[in-house]
Amino acid sequence: MNKDLLAPFRAPLIKYCKDEGLEFEKIVSLPKCGNDNALFVQYYDSEKCGKGLLNNKPAEVVIQVEKRPNGEFDILPGKNIRKYLG
Amino acid sequence: MQTAGSRSSRTTAGSQDAHSKKEYKTYRENRIARAEEIVRENAEKIKRITISARNNAAGRPSAIYMTGAKLNKQQMRIISKLPKYDSQYIFKKAEVSMKDLSALTAETGDEFAMFTRGGERLIIRGDNKSVNVTIKKAKELKKEGYKWSGHTHPGNDFYCLQASGDDYEILRVFSQKQSVTYNSIGQYLTYSL
Fold it and tell me: Is the ipTM value over 0.95, yes or no?
C-alpha cells in the first residue's frame, strides 16, 4: 500500500502557503520524498533525465519540512519556491 | 585595612582547605582502587558482556558504520555473491532485505539496488556514487516482470537520501508510485510521484 507522504505535513504546509501567498495544490502534484519526520518536495525536468541510477544529483528542493521532537514544524523554502508554487 | 584576626582566620581556612583536599585525594584513590578491584573480580563476566554486545551489533547498519561492527553471516553470504561493481545476483526473497543492503552500504561504501519478482530478488552492486541501472536497463527489468524495491545511498543523514530526477523517472518506467532509499545507518526515505 502506498504511503501518503504529505499527510503528516499537510496542515502546516497549507498554513504556510496561505501566509506566503503560495498555491498548496501545486505541492500535491510535485514529486516528493520523506518519512514521518521530514518531507522534501522536489522539482525535476524529465527532459534532462535519462541516466537512470547513474545520476546521483538530488532533484531541486522546492520546500522542506521537518518535524521537531516537540511536535512543531520547521519549514525551509527553496530558493525558487515562488517559481514553482507562486 | 586587614586586621590580624582576619589574617589568622584566613590561615585557618587555608589549612582546612588543604586538609579537605588531602581527604578528597585519599577518598578518590580508594574509589579508583575499589573500581579496579571490582573489574578484576568480574573480568570474565565483563568480557562475556562485551563480546555479547559486539555480537548483537553485527549486521546492524548504524553499528557497522559507526563502530565497525561486522556484517552478520547472511550479509556476508550476500556480499560474497556481489564482489565488485556491476555484480548482480538473484537471491530468494527471504534471504535479503533493504536493511541488509543498508548494512552492505555501511560496510563497503557502495550503493546497491534491489528489484523483486515473485519470490526472488535481484541485487545489483554499484560504486560509491551510483548503480549501473540506466533507463534502458530499467525498461528491460520491467519487461522481465521485476518491480523496483529500492536502493541505497552512502551517507549518514537525511540529505543523502533525497531522490534525483532519474530516481523519479525510474519509478515511471516501473509504473510504480513509490520506492525507498536507505542510507548507511538504516534510515530511509520513501519517494513518491
Answer: no
